[in-house]
Write a structure and sequence with these properties.
Layout lengths: L5 H11 L4 H16 L8 E5 L5 H9 L8 E3 L6 E6 L4 E7 L5 H8 L6 H16 L2 H4 E4 L14 E3 L6 E3 L4 E3 L2 E3 L1 H5 L1
Parallel strand pairs: 1-2
Antiparallel strand pairs: 1-3, 3-4, 4-5, 6-7, 8-9
Helix pairs in contact: 1-3, 2-3, 2-5, 4-5
Length: 187
Amino acid sequence: MTNLTREQIDGAISFHGHHCPGLTIGLRAAEFCLREIGNAKDEEIVAVVENDMCAVDAVQFLTGCTFGKGNFIFRDYGKAAFTFFRRSDDKRFRIILNPTLCADLRSQMENVPRDSAEGKALRQKMIERLMEAELDEMFNVSIPDEPIPGKARLHKTIACARCGEGTMETRLSEVNGQLLCRICTIN
C-alpha cells in the first residue's frame, strides 16, 4: 500500500495531465526513491530512467530530479526501470517493474480498445493494484555497477555555420571545416 500523500498523488496527476497505469508505476518508483534516499535537493539525487513513458513525469515531480538541473537522465532502453543515486554517500539502486505483477491485466488490456468502458475499467483496476502493492513486491532491486553521472556542465553556445542558430558546443559536428548543428548535418 502506498505511503504517498493525497497531495503528492494529486500533484503528480496534475503535472502529468491524467492518472494512468504508467503514471502509477512512476509514482511508486518515486516513492521507492523517497523511502530509500530522499528527494533531490538541488543536484544531490540523480535519476536515470530507461523509458519515456508516463512514469517519468511522476519521478520528476516527486523526486525533484529534472533535465534542467542535469540530474534526470533518459536512456532509451524501453524498460520500466529506474536507477537512483545519492551523491553524498554513493547510495544507489536500480529498480525494475516486476513483470509478473499485473501480467494478467496487461494481457487483458491488449485485447480491449483503450477508450472502451472495459478498457477504462481494466486500466482503473491496474492503477488500484499498483497502488496497493508493496514496493518490495512491485520492483526487482539491484545495485548498479555504473558510476554516478557527473554534475551538469555549462557549455558555450556557438552559432551553426549553416543555419546560424545558437547550439551547445558539444552538439556541433565539424563537416567540411564548418561547425554544424545536428539538424544541419542530416539535411
